[in-house]
Amino acid sequence: MTLFLAGIVGYLANRRVVLERQVATRTAELGRANEALRDASQAKDRFFAHMSHEIRTPLHSVIGMSGLLTSTALSEEQQEYAETIRVSGESLLSVVNEILDFSKIEADKLELESQPFNLRHCLEDAIDVVAALAAKKNLELFCRIEERLPTALLGDVTRLRQILVNLLSNAIKFTDKGEVEISVSGETRDSRQALLCFCVRDTGLGISPEAKSKLFQSFSQCDASTTRRYGGTGLGLVISKRLCELMGGAMEVDSLGVPGYGTTFRFSILVECNPEVQTPDVPTDVVVAGKRVLIAASNKTCREILAQQSQTLGLHPVTVSTGREALDVLGRVDLFGHMETFDLAILDAI
Fold first, then answer.
1. Which is it for the CA torsion 226, 232, 235, 236, positive or negative?
2. For residue 343, what are the contacts with CB-CB under 8 A and spacing of at least 6?
3. How many CA atoms lie within 13 A of 278 on its CB side?
4. Phi, psi angles (nearest 5°) of residue 329
5. Distances 346 to 66, 141, 343 between C-alpha atoms, Å
6. CA–CA–CA angle 91, 98, 144 (5° rounding)
7. CATH 3.30.565.10 occupies which residues in the chain?
8. What is the pTM (predicted TM-score) of this model?
């Protein structure tokens, strides 16, 4: 019996040694396979980055020359052909730029800059890029900034503008009627750093809960019909989300998936305050504090923003939604028999 048990113990010990050797061998093989995959992935990223640069150079020439061509004496048909070349070149350049950025991010080669910039100017520049598209679709485009936020900052303003333009373009693209609004809030964490929180809201198609999981996946959109109708590589949101993370923030999306209720994208970034620049956003040589202003605008969001900005300047706003209401206000008489008077009126096309 003792010999039998000793034999079993010896067999199990030998079997354990064999299994440990097999595990060690498999682990080494997996390590070599993972290293090979990393090398292949890095080689792919280097290839995409190199080819994207090589493609961009002649594309700039195509776009530039076609633009010059449209300014020459051409027939109507030739003008149409030249304009098609220019628009197609710009679309292809946008795709190449996205692939280049994506390749840099995947290869950990994307470097952020730190330069002085003004937050309000950055928002205005981003809005200017998409304003024509919003006007073409008869959409209201709004922007509001929290009053206490510092606007003289240090950071990568080019990448911030890229995120804003991407989100605003998507909001306008997927909104057929209504409005698109961008708002900024945040907090100053210390005398040198601030957390900025951006919100891009629209009244468009919305995103279903099932489609949300695909939003931040590479080369994917909500469904195939979206790609066919609106185009795009599906990289814009992926790149924007990764840029937010590189800037010390995050990105998320809220949507009920109901047309008309739209979608809201929120993202945050960390920036440095620029103590060397103390330029006020409001001119100090104009005194408007205490003045009364009548604001007439049909859009509720527009009235709220104008009233907020007026109060920031020290004005006393009165808001109405129609021209008839504005006339009624102007015809009112107070308890002392005096007519309502205003120092300033801001009138929408109502």
1. negative
2. 291, 292, 293
3. 2
4. -65, -45
5. 42, 17, 11
6. 90
7. 115-273
8. 0.71
State the CATH architecture for 292-347.
3-Layer(aba) Sandwich (3.40)
Query: Which tokens in the block code for residue 1?
Result: 């019996």
CATH number of 2-106: 1.10.287.130
* Residues 100 and 140: beta-carbon distance below 8 Å: no
Q: pLDDT per residue over 231-276, tens digit each? A: 555 688 888 999 999 999 999 999 887 777 889 999 999 999 877 6
User: What are the φ and ψ backbone dihedral angles of 117, each rounded to 5 degrees?
Assistant: -155, 160
Distance between CA atoms of residues 159 and 184, nearest Å:
16
CB atoms near residue 259 (< 10 Å): 13
Helix (H) or strand (E) holding 167: helix 157-173
157-173 vs 236-246: helix crossing angle, rounded to 10: 150
Tokens of 16: 């354990």
Give 193-224 pLDDT, tens digit per residue: 889 999 999 999 888 877 777 787 765 555 55
The identity of residue 141, as a single letter, is: L
Could you give the residue range(s) of every CATH 1.10.287.130 domain in the chain?
2-106
